[in-house]
Protein 1
Amino acid sequence: MNSKERLVTALNHQQPDRIPYDLGATFTSGIHANAYHKLREFLELPQPLEDRFLCLDEQIVFIDEDIKQRLMIDTEPVLPGNPSTWNLLIEDKTDHSWYRNEWQMGLKMPKDGGFYYDVVDNPLAEAGIDDLKYFPWPDPYDSTRYATLEQDVQQAAETGRAVIMNSISAGILEMSAWLIGYQRLFTGLLLEPEFLTALFDKILDIKLAYWETVLQRVGDKIDVVIEADDLAEQRQLLISPRTYRKLVKPYHKQLYETIHSRTGAKIFHHSCGSVYALIPDLIEIGVDILNPVQVNAANMDSAKLKAEFGRDIVFWGGAVDPQGTLNSGSPNQVYTETSRNIESLAKDGGFVFAAVHNIQPNIPPQNIMAMWQALQDHRY
């Protein structure tokens, strides 16, 4: 099998020749620039001339071809381009770097001890419903965004790896939180449902237009569609199942039904945390793949998830915890935890190997390679 065949086989809940491996195809299964530089040094590979960022905010880099071949990575990412109305302009301040993204959010990364760009300016924090009409929303039809789309997809396909098409933005709930602030989002679900409905409508419209444009052009040439919406933290859901089903689920359902109607690609939904209670809902609305499989969160034991949902959803991630063992454990501990989760998740397909989340800046390369070695030693 080549990489594409291997991953597609696993996504169809069949056993491939070996477990497919993703590193760097999505914003939530990548590696921080700092850790990437250390890994290249450990593997005695030259450093790139400059970092190319898959996700600037989280400092997640594109993986170079030498690493892809060395580690036998099975995935190839594709991203939309920047629109004609916005260019990245990073301002270098005394103690931080700062920029404004195309959604008008201000983001800042401290120079002393800063590893990521965090949202510090919520542009719709004080907005009312009428203000939404005049806000400078991203234009999903901007042709510049898609100027190299077919070429990028073709080049990705020519690698023999599975083609992973990324989204225009984070999820509807998550984008709302960044636009208006988390406090207003959570109180607004109870106190401002009309405003939030109008906001959700606008974000959904942008997403639908984006995916309709992308899938009309390359829907038959991609293997996985990436979408996301964080619905939980490590102990519990962020909102109640009732609130999710009433106010958010209908938007996910419309989005995923539209995507499925225009492509045979599988839908990947990212949600951190203890999302166990909503997995049946995600399956119902057409989610094919759950990421990141946060096995250190409540009710997210890998064996339990495979037993209950393994026939209906693919688990992408869940190999080892970057908050705990992968970060601060020994290579032997990393190998042991990774092996245990592989044994829980990989049988009969339906599993794509990746760390629970992005490989963080302080994770030692020895631990990354212990995780990788566990994958090599466990084949079905």
Note: The chain has one domain: 3-85+124-377.
Protein 2
Amino acid sequence: MNSIFIYLFFEIVVHRWLYDYSNTIVTGILSPAGLPQGAVMIIAALVLFMLQWYLCYWLYKKKIFFKV
């Protein structure tokens, strides 16, 4: 429903500013656990995916829809 908004939001805002921040946090939390770098990157991608999903869910529940 807000697919264009989510795409643009994550391409502009998240990719430029929050992507490195979230990777740093996930790496900082999971690196002491001894996980390989590939597993940490997969988990970081899943965290960003869950953030996208939650934002879509929140917009849907609040009945906020962006029209293009």
Note: Residues 3-61 form one domain.
Protein 3
Amino acid sequence: MTDQRSETASNAPPLGVDAFRLDGKVAIVTGASSGLGERFARVLAAAGARVVLTARRLDRLERLAAELDGAVAVACDLSRGEELERPVQRAIEEFGQVDIVVNNAGMESSALAVDEKVTCFRQVLDVNLVAPFVLARTAARDMLARGAGGSIVNIASILGLVGLGQIPQASYTASKGGLVNLTRELSAQWARNGIRVNAIAPGFFGSEITQGMLAEERGRRWVARHTAIGRQGLPHELDGALLFLASDASSYVTGAILPVDGGWTSI
């Protein structure tokens, strides 16, 4: 009798690095016009995915799309509710499906909590929490209808796991904390349908949000003192986490929050 746990050659999972390939997959990346979002789009495309690039700055997206095979640029302002379903709609129009969503776009507001305007607080939550929910929900509807499963990767932050205080960001930390638990809840709701929902919680990496602080030697020294590895992160150091969570390499992982923070949350 054949062991029921064995796999035939036709349905065996890919071995080793092949499990990280994304050939035939369609991915959406928000905030893809610069920084980490642009890097994420390039990484997914290099692994074989066709990528829908989303951000407000269409000119930058179009330049990036011209460099990637099968990429499409879609202008979308995530603070405008009427535009939030546009990336998924375009992906289905162009490619017939959505397999991966990387909710990367975000904004921050540095202000003391006693001074922060409620309108600003709400705007940060709209972009960092409400928009990822709408994109995940819209994509999940397509995944559920096709019965094909999929992967949603939310880009949270270590500030969704711990407080900071020295850099006052009540709205940003609230939004990222919400995104962390939204990740867990959506993973629980959709796991039986083959839709995995996970999050990456980066530490301090160079981006438009952190450029002011990390451009100064004082800011870099402060990050180094509080990070176990003793330095800020480099963009390529998120590649492995992204590919792992986006691909079948993590087929048994859902609801996970993966810190990529140089040990910040360990000390």
Note: Residues 1-6 have pLDDT under 50 and may be disordered.
Protein 4
Amino acid sequence: MLNKIVIEPIVKRALIEDIGSGDITTMSIIPDNLSAKAIIHAKQAGVLAGMPIVKEVYRQIDNSVSVEILRSEGSELAPGETIAEITGKARSILTGERVALNFLQRMSGIATKTRKMADLIKYYDCHLTDTRKTTPGLRILEKYAVSVGGGRNHRFDLSSGVLIKDNHIEVSNGIQNAVAEARRHIGHTLKIEVEVKNMKEIEEALACGVDIIMLDNMSIEEMEKAVEVIGNKAIIEASGNISEDNVKEVAGTGVNYISSGSLTHSFSSLDISIDIAYEKKK
């Protein structure tokens, strides 16, 4: 669920960036008293995500504009399918078009990619999650799109949990020291996750009693061996170069979670358009 308090400033920044001191093209050509109806429709198949942002775009531009949503978030769209109808001042509809589509196309692209990958592993006891590899300033929207597509969210930020990675281990002179220091400084409700790259580090992480072990960039054979060694002693997460091509094979190793940065950094925006259906003077 997207909180209005969170999305309002994101949309405001996008509108300020795009409109500047005014939409001179629309204001020069379109009379102020002209009303219009526009249709948002899909031009390719995919999963819908981002309509609450579209509504917020038009609320901020002109709260008299009506956005009637015809397809729910997470719906699978067919080419040509109508997603929503927008009615109100033609000027307002045209001024908000690009920003509304920028959000909608990108968020739907993320949801579409996530759905494809999640469906590939739906018969395994394994969950697909995102990462923090998101567009600066848009993380909340991109992680929301992942959840709409059927994925789960990893940490939202650095304060959401302890994830000890290779550079932390290097600076701390080993996993044992890093975990001990983390436990000294965090509350008892926080879990500790450690990134490992070989069996030696797995044994160290298990000896420390960590909650989650992340298998980083391991081969399928290495992951299978790691799952056998770890068993139920920790939650097992696989990460590193996960794509549609190998996600099913990774899930088959028995890991509990698969995290993929590609969900939010290597997706294709969904082709969606806003077209004026008719114009009528008041």
Note: Residues 90-120 form the longest helix (31 residues).
